[in-house]
Structures are given as structure tokens and as C-alpha cells.
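Exercise (ungraded).
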Amino acid sequence: MSRKLLAATTALVLTGTLPALADCPVKVGVLHSLSGTMAISETTLKDTMEMLVEQQNEKGGVLGCELEAVVVDPASDWPLFAEKARELLTVHEVDVIFGNWTSVSRKSVLPVLEELNGLLFYPVQYEGEESSKNVFYTGAAPNQQAIPATDYFLEELGVEKFALLGTDYVYPRTTNNILESYLQQKGIPSEDIFVNYTPFGHSDWSKIVADVVALGADGKKVGVISTINGDANVGFYKELAAAGISADDIPVVAFSVGEEELAGLDTSNLVGHLAAWNYFQSAESEANDAWVEAWKARMGEERVTNDPMEAHYIGFNMWVNAATAAGSTEVDAVRAAMYGQEFPNLTGGTAVMLPNHHLAKPVLIGEIQADGQFDIISQTEEVPGDAWTDYLPESAVLKSDWQELGCGMYNVETSTCVQIKSNY
Amino acid sequence: MVDLSLSATRRPLVTRYPSLLIFLGVLALFTVSVTILSEGFGIGVISTSFVKTLGKTLCLCLVALAMDLVWGYCGILSLGHMAFFGIGGYAIGMWLMYARTEIIVRESLAAAPLPPTPQEISDGIAAQIFGVVGASEFPPIWAVAHSLPLQLAAVVLVPGCIALVFGWLAFRSRVTGVYLSILTQAMTLALALYLFQNDSGLRGNNGLSGLQNLPHLDHVSQSTISIVFFWASALALGLGYVLCTWVISGKFGSVIRAIRDDEARVRFLGYSVEAYKLVIFTFTAVLAGIAGALYYPQAGIINPAEIAPIASIYLAVWVAIGGRGRLYGAVIGAAFVSLLSTWFTGGQAPDIDLGFYTVNWVDWWTVLLGLSFVIVTLFAPRGIGGLFDLISERRSPERHGADLGPEPGALQEREADR
Amino acid sequence: MFSFVTRFLVCFGLCLSALSPVHAQQIDAPVQQILQAHGEVIKKSSRRTIGPAIDALAASGLTDAQVVLQRWQDKEMWFDRETGIFVFGMAADGGQLSVFEVAGGAPIGVFDKKQFKQLKPNSGIRGLIASALVQFQLNDPDPDVRETAISSIERDPDVSHLQALRRSIESEIDPALTARKSRLERLLTIRFGSSDAKRIEAIESFDGDLGVDLRAALNPLVSTRIEAAAELPEGALALEVGSDDLSVDAAYDILIAAELAPPRVSSDGLRDTLVANIDNGTVAGIEVASLDADEARFSAYAALAEAGLAQPLVTDATITETLQKFQFYEVFTGAPVSVAQAAQVALDDIETRVALSQTADLALDGLSLASIYFLAAIGLAITFGVMGVINMAHGEFIMMGAYTGYVVQLFVPDYTLSIVVAIPLAFAVTFGAGVAMERLVIRWLYHRPLETLLATFGVSIALQQLAKNIFGTQARPLTAPGWLDGSWVINDIISISYIRIAIFILALLFLALFLFVMNRTRLGLEVRAVTQNPRMAASMGINPDKINMLTFGFGSGIAGIAGVAIGLYAKVTSEMGSDYIVQSFMTVVVGGVGNIWGTLLGATMVGFLQKSIEWMNPSNTLAAQTYMILFIILFIQFRPRGIIALKGRAAEA
């Protein structure tokens, strides 16, 4: 009894001294598009955040405060992301933001976050080559998705010739650039790497598929690495199926096709094609069973879970733990407490937050099944996320370490910090 | 009518267009009150993000003014003016990115054991800017990005030259009416697609970002910068309004209105219709470019999505809703619709619960906008500006073919015989 | 704590009692022993290490081995997490697993799934298993199994298959399979044949063939490597440095790789050397502060090189000098010279025919794209071309048709039937929408074309958002019936999917329908009368209002059917309409307004143009679209009224 009283008094004293504790409820900004082209992907994440906040409130909130989700809609309009981020930080005065999907939207909010010292958790796989003091990247960096998938192609499937197909924007461009360089280091000559970029929502795939088939003419096994985004996948996979290409002839590994995307497709012709992620709904663990069950109970039986949702799950729980450890929701204190935070991920292992603001997560490769789910056929150990790739000469010398060096763009050759703010 | 315009040339601009003085007064009052209420220079009632929104709205008003001139007065429904707006933004954005990155690179290279060569600095800047899109060399399009005066010239010259060439080609072969609209839309689409490509050298889909951070002004807070840009936008809008009023006031204005009403007759009267159209098209493109150059440093990022054809269509929507053929109509339309859009899509508008269905404005605003646009076109061709006719008790004459706007020769009603 | 212990004990007892009889029986079986011997690699499940396990099973001669391999391939093999014993498993109700013995396949019982772990061979391992199974399958009584075996050889040809394949040909009864086997046998002979003469014979037997598999067999034979030596070896094919086959840089790189010449000094290397030699603020006596230009750095480096502190710079002059000391020549690395030359002859012959086929394939693609554009634009050719109404919501009518197809498929699960229902329904829905729009909006604006454009834009924006609100932004599936799956294959290069052929036929049907309605029916006559002179038509007893309404509805209805077709081949989203609207207008404008043949020509031109630009720049489809639009803009400058321009009074109407 007396101990409880003491705790309460301590809490009272603390609230007096720590300003962050004073403003209950603790506000969690949710910066996901609810309208426009990205709404389909991002609305799911908004719902995920609301569910997480609710679950946490049932457990008693954080630091004795209720959590409140502040949801804004940047409407898939990139400049609006910056505006809404500023609004969240200055008008609503949120303690942390969970948000963004596309890289361009992240680049749009970066200057605002760094100016106002905000804190963003970014949940989507991305191209790397960035490290901001104010962002924790809970999605996969290229070395946590693209590189292991390419290794899988090289070693397990014996692919000798690569078609890198992508939608023409930053993530595919940079990822393919890294992969080209990586493949060449692995001894694949540059003439055996075919690269093609198509616009968003591209639908006329016959010629590109024919080009890919023609690659097999010199007797080497061909594999496709697809960074094709969103709707365009529908036409692409339809054309693949029409051309009678099975996964045994020309396997396709996709980095942007998950459970949500497959919902728009008849997958019976795609069985055996691959996707690489850090999470699949079919992962076998008790935490995942509970998570999927809670999600379906909330959103409906036909809804699926996916990788960015897991990223938010890990990110949010880590943030709660870090805030508890720091005894405050103040950004700098939470950031310091984030390093080394561990939280069990949904695929069975443990995710660790590294000093470069990336997670160590396992890489999973799944085969598409007829029911639109993935059969996990390969799971690696936890791979530490790498902000700057080792496979491009300009980036190989760079390193990010906010804990020891206090720099996200540290040149190990000259031992200098290139810049404190991030590149945008 | 003819009499009026002849005698009009002798009187000063302000008396002939009383709306000019009222507009400038309102604009000045607005600017002063926003400054007083702002965080940067005043009591801080208005947040910095809202000041930025207001500043951007003023730029949109300026481009709407250009649109009104080219469409409401000259009858060319251009669906390409937001492209010129975007080009202006890109032009200034290139310098902002270059200059900011140059400071960072110079600082980091200063620590190197050897003093950097110009090539190393240039490579360093290129790696910083293009690293994100997987390139590390400067494309030729960035040749003058280091120089502010040259990029400022580009803000004016690039949209101007594109408009000049495109307009010359189009007007010369007498592409008019809806064909011209479709052609300008195609031009916008081609430009957007071109910029979407990484090979275009402007960072593809990512575009240019971080534009709100002005080089060498790191120590100045955004609340101050936002107000300064707000002033600049207000000044540009004021000057643009005066300039546009001047353009439509004289004989030149009469000719372009005549071109709108009946191009063939003007041609038979011996005027070079193509030259007039070309001048107006180019002039408004330049105006749009300037508006864009002021807009994007406030928005912080420019990318090809900003140039997509739909943006130019919205521009036409603003002008139509505000009221074509009157300059203040365009300004009102742009300000009203874009602010309302922000309010509705921002999730601030209260949802309407119908019992069986909840109307969520984030989802339904666009439907409402589209339908209101149809309604305005059908039933209120004068737009919001028409309300001022009620105040000024300006009644329509009871005949067809009468002017719809307050100024002589504004958009006309249908001719009686059609 | 206590309860945990009891639960553990109970479970342990149960598990033990359930498993122990199996335990003894299983472990003795020879096939289980082979599996256990390779247990580690099998559980590791990596293509790189799995080889010995598969080989051991295949070579064991056990009948069980074949079953094990097959069920392993089908992901039906599991192992006990505790004992490591391999079993077959089938999912049973309630998360349970029915377990069977690997030897004989006798049922063992039903267990909790968590006790076992599934083996999930990846497709690389499945390929190896398939390859190993070939020897069992080639003479299988079931033709499907034999076909599987042939396919697996085709995928991963191996020297061991050649003998088995040859043996199986004689006993083959199915003529189609005999043909495939014999072709495969010759392909394998090209790769693995015992004598050069036989290989050359096999190569020559393929005269006139241009299959990808043949080229895949031939190409490795003609692979070459460029080598350098002071003297040209006898019979080697000399290469000239500086020619297209061998650039100066490439030649020097070969020398560097062979360690016959010093590597070049990169600018980074140069800088590093300078940094390494900084001594008291100077490098080779030159102030560090002055080294901010390339020339200064070169001279400092030269000074270092002279002092022996760095390797000398490789200049262009030294490169030329070094290259002159060597001869460069090509050697065949894939096969003996005679085979390689035969293969080269065959390939050269194939190449010209491949190029021809590729052109044909490209033309087919262009035709297909043209028919899609035509289909998207034909409704517009009616509303815009004939009536002169700009309907920017045309794309949304296409979208409405596609969504109608999607909704029909929700209720009618049979794909063929659903398409049969969807097409008239899509026509009806969009016809209704078109009529409604004409009555409510367009008829007030017939003489204000610019305002029609804007008002229909408003409708377009509203419809698009409405579709988003109803169906969501994600693509919806519209699945083609099974008989439209796959493609029509002429040879390995020329092929076109059936769905595209169907679209082409549909486009032709629409063209015929349009011509019939316009030229042969009363409606068509009245439409033409109303568009030419509404008042005159009215005085002849035609109701122009009604005709306008019907015409607009007809054009919109056709857009709806086009939507079903486009949805079948691509995707159904709320934005699919806007993907086609600009192209559709371009098609109509380029072709010439008011003439269906013009639209046809316009679509053909746009389609072929886009494909040929894509062909010229295969890595960037976006560029193709950009350049095509630019070309069209220019084209309209020179033919403002399109390919087929109306002349005379009609042109001004």
C-alpha cells in the first residue's frame, strides 16, 4: 500500500519536473494517406496504428497516460505530407509520428522533422541511402530484402541471367542499381543483366515478357527480380501466365507484392513465384497467430496482414518500451533509449534496434500459393539493416551511427561526418 | 460599346477598373493582418503551417489570374498552365538544392587532407543530390544550377520559350477550341511523363525536395521565412493583378476579347490573330512560372505529380467557379476552392451521419467538387464573381449575347440565334 | 510451475507411447536409413548441399525411394522435431497432422502439427529431384508422367539423361511424345554427344528451326574468350585493337587481368597516394594547399613517381606502346573448333530468321495495342467524332463497364457465363449513364464545346471518386474464362495471347457494327442528318433530341463493352479510365474527326509507333510514351485535321 503511494508521489514529482509527462494524453501522430492513390496501402496502416494504440491503452497506456492517436490525411499528395507533419508537430504537438509509405513522401517530411526535432517511424521497405536522426526505419533496407533474395536466386535456383523489371521511380531505380553492382561483383557480366522500367500502372506487358523469354536463348537460366509497384503487377502476372511461363522456367521474385496486392489477382497461375519480405501472414508463431486473429476480429475475416504492419507493430512496441525506459516521451530521451531495444517479432525471432536507426530482422522468402498466401520456404537469421549499401562505391565508405558517432553519414575513409542533417 | 472603350483609354486605370483599387486594398489589409497574427512577426495566433498555406494560396491565385487572362479573356482553354507553374518551381528548386548541397559538400571536404579540386566538389554535390536515384553525375540540364541569377532567368525564360514554341506551332496551324485544349493537355502529359523518368536528370518521381531550407539561412526560423515568402507572394499577386488589368485595359485587351468572341472576324479586320494569341499565351506562361517559383519553396518539394494534367484541370475549375472574364473572379475562385479543399481533405470537416451511411468528407469532397463544377458550368457561368453583380445591382440586359462580367466585353451569354 | 511439470510429464508420456512403436519400425527401413544418413542436409534444404542425398536415394534402387522423392517434391515430407525421423504428413482437421510411414506409406496416426516440421524444398531442389526422378518416369505407363519427365530434362539437361532418353524412345508409343523425345535427344546430343561428328550431325539436323531451346544449346558452344600473347598461336583468329570487337580500353584490361601490364592509376588512387606521402604540409616538395586542381596533383604525383615513391602513371602513350607488344586473338571455349564452327553457321542462319520473326512479333504487338486503342476510342469516335461532343468522362464509362464485369463475376462464378452476362449488362449500364448525362448536362451545352469539356471533366472527377468510394482504390480481379488463357504460339518468338486476339476480333466487330448502324440503319441515317443540320432534320420529322440522346448512349455503351475487354487483359481500377482518355482523344484527333476509318488509322499509327519506339529503347517504356505524345503533337501541327480530313462544308460543322 505504502509502496503504491510512494510510486504515486514519485510520479507526481516526476510530472512536475518532466514537461513531457505533464501533457496527458500522450499523442501519437498517424501520417498515412487516407485518400488518393496510396490510400489502399496506407489506410491499412492507419487501422493498424489505431488497433495498436487501443491495445496499449487496454494495457494501461504509457507512463501512466492514455495514448491518443491523432490521424491526419496527407491525401497521397507529397507536399501535403510536409504540411501535415508540421501541423502534427506544432499544432497537435504529438510525441511521435508513425507514417509514410512512399520514399518521396518521406523525403518531403524529412526537413520538417529535422527542423522541429520530431520522431518518425517509417514502416516500409525502402531503398536505403539515407539516415536521419529523427527517423527510425522499421522496414527493410536493401540488404534485408533485395540482396538475400538475389543470393537465393544465385545459390538456390542457379539463376545466371537476370531481368530487373521495375516501375520507374526511386525505390526500383536505386535497388536495381545496387543489385547490378552486386551481381557484377558476384561475377555476372553486365550483358547478362537486363533492366527495364515501366510507368506506374503499366498494362501492356507483352513485349517485355517476350524480351524476358528471349533472354534464355543463350542457354543460361533466367530469373526476374521485380520491383514493379502496385496495379501494374496485375497486368504483368496476367501476361506471364498467358505466355505459359511457370515459376520453374523463369522464377520471379517480387519486392513489392504482398498479401494485400495478391488480393487483386487470381493466383492459380502464379503458384511458385516468389516474394521476399521480413514477414508473411503464414509465419508460424504464437504472437503471429494472436496478431492475425486480433486483426481479423477487428477488420473482418477476409482481411490479411502484411509486412509493413509488422514493422509498425515492432516500431510501436519498441517506442512504448523506450518511452517507459526513458521515463519520458521527449524525443531525445526516447531516441537514446531506443538503441538496443529488443522486441520479439512476429516470425519467431527478436528484432533489435541498431544505432543506425534500422532493425535487425530475418529475411523470408515465400512462394505464392493458390489461396493468395505465401508458403515460407526460406528464413534467414536476423540481418542487421544497413543504411548505406556496401555495393555502391560512393556509399560503401559511409556509415551511420547515431549512438556513438552522432552522425548518420559518416565517411569511414576520411573519418569525418559528411552532414548531420539527412540528404533529401 | 465601342465608344466606351475609346474614351476609356484616356482615363486612368484605377477609375476605369474600380475593382483594382478594392482588390489591392483587400490584399494589403489581408497581408498586414496575417503578419500581425503570425508566429514570425506577430502574436502567433496563426501557425507557421497555416501561413505557408496562405502564401501558397496567393501563388495559386496568381496562376489563376494567368489562366483567366488566357481563357476568360482570350478564349484559349489551356490545360497546360500548371506545367509552366511546375517548370518555374523546378527552375528555382534546382538552384536551392544545388546551393544547399554545395555548402554541405564544401564543409565536409574541407576536413579532407588535400584541398578539394573543383571536380571533386562537383562530384560530391552530384553524389549527394542524385545518390537517392542511383546516379552520381550531373546531367547537362543542371549546367547553370550554381548560379542564382541564371536560374531566376530560367524561371521566366523556360516557360516562356516552351509556350512560345508550342504556341507558335499550334496557332500557326490554326488549332483552336477543344483541339487546342487537348493538345495542351497532351503537352502537359508529355512533360509530366518526361520528368517522371529518372533519365531526365531531375530525380524522377522524387523530384526536388527540401526546398524550404534556404541556403545560408539555416539560422533563420521557418516562421520568419514563411512570412517573408508570404509577403513576396502577396507582392507578386498585387503586381500581377495590376499588370493583367493593364493588359486588358487598352486596345490590346479589346483585341484579345474580340478574338475570344469571334476569331474569324478579327482576322478579317486585318489583325494578326496568331501574334496576339501568342503574346498572351507566352505572357501568361511566364506569369505561371513566376507563381511556381514562389510556390514551391513554400511547399518544400516539387515532383512530376504536381504537373500531371489533372492539376491544370483543377486550375480551370478554380477560374470557372470564381468567375471567368473578371480578374478578381479568378483570385476568389482559386483562394476559395483551394482553401476549401484543404479544409475538407484535411479531415477537419465534420462527418455527416445519415444513419445508414456516414458521409466522410475525405472521400466525398472530390465528388462534391466535381458535381459543383458541373452545376456552376450549367447554371452559374458567372461563378462566385457573379454575386458581386448582385451587390453592385448590375442587372443583365434582357437580350441574349450580353456580357456576363462587369468589365466591358467580358464573357458573353449565348447568342439569341443559337 | 507445478502444473507445467505435470503437463510436461503427461505430454511426454503420451508422445512417447504414441511414437515408440513407430520408432522401432521406422528406423529399420532402408529408405529411412538413407534419409537419416543425409538427415542434416535434407533438413538444411539448400540446393548447394542437397545433391548427395538425392543421388543416394535415386541410386538406391529401392521402390520406396521413388515415392519418397515424389512426395518430398510435393512438400508432403515432414520430420519429427525431437527424433528427426522422416514421415509423410497430410493436413488433418483442427490443426492436426495425419502421419504415414516413408517406407510403404502405412498410416501411423494423427498428431499435433507442432510435433513435426515440414520439409519445404525450394524450386531449385525440386528441379534436382525432378531430374533424379527422370530415370523412373521416362518409361512410366502414364503419358502425363512421361511428359513431366521430358519437361524436367528440358529444364535441366544433364549428361546422364542422354542414355536413359535414348533407351526410352524405342518403347514410346505416343507419337507426340516420340517427337518431343527425339527432338530432345538431338538437343542433348548437341550438348553432350560423344563424338564431334555426331554433334555436328545433330546441329545440322535442326536446319530451319529457331527454338529458344536450340539456341540455348548452340550458344554456349560458340562462346569465345579473347586472349593476348606476344605471338599469335597457329590457327587463332586475330583481332585488331581499336576495332568494334575490341576497344583499346578492353584490350588493355585483358593485359591487366593477365598481369601483363600495370593497372591504371585511378583519381582516387592518385589522391590516396598523395595523402599517404604528405610530409610536413608538403607532398614531394609541393604545398598541400596548392593541390586543389588536377594539374597540380598530376605534377606532384609525377614527382613522387620519379622519386620512386609511387608507381608511374599509365598514360595513353604507354597504353598504346604496351598494346603494340601483344597480339590479340579469340579462342572458342565452349566446344572443339569444328563443332563450334558448325554451331556458328547454324546460329548465323537462325539469326536472320529470328530477326524476321521478331519483326513479325513486334508487328503483332503493335496490332494488338492498336486494337486496344481503337476499342477504347471507338465510343469516342461516335460521341466526339460524329456528334462533336467532348466527353472527358469517356474513360470513366470504360471504367464503369469494367466494374460491371467485376460485379457480375461476384455473382456468377462461371467465368464464361459471367462474361456473356457482363457484356450486354455493361452496355446497358453505360448506355443508361450516357443517356442520363446527355439529358442532364450535355444537351444544355451543345454550342459551348469548351464548357462541355469542363462539365464532363467534373463528371469524370466525381465518377472516379465514386468508384473509389464504392470499390476501393485497389485493383479488382476480372478473370478471363479458361479458354482465353494461354497464347497462340507460332514459333518460339512469335506468339500472342488469346485474350489479345479476342480484343482484336472485338475491335473488328465493333467496326462492323459501327459501319452497319451508321450506313445501313434508319438510326444511322437520322444521326447523320441531325449532325449535319439539326434544324433541317427536325423539319423532316426527326426528333433531334431523341437522336442525340440515343447516339450518345450508343457511344457510351460501346465504351462500357470496351471496359470489360480492357479489364480482362489488364486491370480494373478507378483510374483505368484516365489511363486511356488522352490516348483515345489523340487517336480520334490524329485519325481525323468524324470518320471511323480515320480512327482506325489513328489507332494503328499510335499503336505501331509506340511499339517501335519501345523497340528502339527497350529499357524505358516511359520514354516511349513521352516521345509518342511529342510526335503526335508535332503531327497535328502538320495535319491539323488528322490523317483523313473532312473536306468542304462538313469540316466546319
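Further reading is listed at the end of the chapter. For now, observe: Chain C has 27 helices and twelve strands. The mean pLDDT of chain C is 84.
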